[in-house]
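Q: Focus on the chain.
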Amino acid sequence: MTQTALSQSDLQDLADKIKVWGRELGFQQIGITHIELGEHETRLKEWLAKGYHGSMEYMAAHDNMRSRPADLLPGTLRVISARMDYLPADARIKEQLQDKSLAYISRYALGRDYHKVIRKRLTQLGKMIEEEVGHGYRAFVDSAPVLERALASNAGLGWLGKNTMLINKKAGSYFFLSELLTDLPLPIDQPDDKNHCGSCTSCIDICPTQAFVGEQVLDARRCISYLTIELKGPIPTDLRKGMGNRIFGCDDCQLCCPWNRFSKTTQETDFTPRHPLDNATLLELFAWDESTFLKHTEGNPIRRTGYQNWLRNIAVALGNAPASIEITEALKQRLPEASDLVKEHIEWALAQHAT
């Protein structure tokens, strides 16, 4: 398709249309920003140098591409950042965390895999822009080396909180981010330069494993989301008690954030919790064989962790649960045929109930 020459007025009109189209496609907010991320690049390098990324080698790969969008897609001039809320209507976060017999799964992972849902919408938005002016685009949904929170902050979608999450004054932090890279010199949106966290340190104080080493600095190696999703080997013994009943991800540093009183529940049916993930007991999930795990996690981000790590995580949670004959028997029953990884965590869990 032939590219259309655009005046500044045309570009402003297009930017306005993009935001309207985005809302029509189900995004709650669209922002447009430049590609300069110098300050964030420096902070990323410092974070990597301290080893806070743990085994996430992909965070250190691709040289400076993560902070330089034009290296990822030559010719990129602007990034269109999109926000989509995901909080289920009946989140029941506190109740599930308090009942140690239940399995706690991060709220973002209860429905359909967000990558698939958002990529489809974002691609539609890109095609609408292409049809309007003939320029290409490239869509990203947590699928390429992009500093999405920094870009979203620059695009006016919020500020980077002390828990490293992007926080929006009108929507809290329970939302997904995604990006369209474009060579269109669109007018940019102004960021909110003020950090609205103030003196609050609730997110840092509440972390069950003390993963925050400072404001906006997370040691991922201690983060429960890292431990239950990214880490492929044994979970460090000294961090297991702090995991409680969290078997996939953790929402604590969002749950305590005062700004999340403004969070909106999602209207996307694809993000509706899938039974039995929203209210399952640890014993129910520990009893799954691999085929059952694959069946119930089809099209769901939980599948990413893999069956062995799933059992590993639940074994730790069972070790943290109130002692009962049912739990002890379930752990012992699984033990003979368990992999070395899972066996280690089952033995740890049994030891917790033997004291």
Residues 8-87+110-182 form one domain. Residues 187 and 220 are 36 Å apart (CA to CA). The chain is about 40% helix and 10% strand.
